[in-house]
Amino acid sequence: MLTKGLAVLAIVALLAVPAVAQEARSAAHEESGAKMYLGLALGLGLAIAAFGGALGQSRAISAAVDAVARQPEAGARIQGMMIIGLALIETLVIYMLLICFMWGGKLGG
Fold first, then answer.
1. 83: confidence class by pLDDT, cuts 50, 70, 90
2. What's the whole-model pTM score?
3. 32-108 has CATH 3.40.50.12710 classification
């Protein structure tokens, strides 16, 4: 599982190289360069948050299904704890989405 994640991270890093390539700029273009980096950081941050949230949720659901398969009479308790855990994992992704909305407004002006 770790090697797949590292492979995906390496592919994303290789694809992001042209996005950060720069040409010589004057001082007047510094602000647009900062906006470019802010946009890139927001996009990559949200992608990483969504990817991490999906991995966390899949592992939580997998563990809950295994636990219910081993002890079916505790299924209701396990399901309740799983739902709380999934809500907390999803909250982290929603926080990153909020950060993107707040800082993304600075890109337009």
1. very high
2. 0.64
3. no
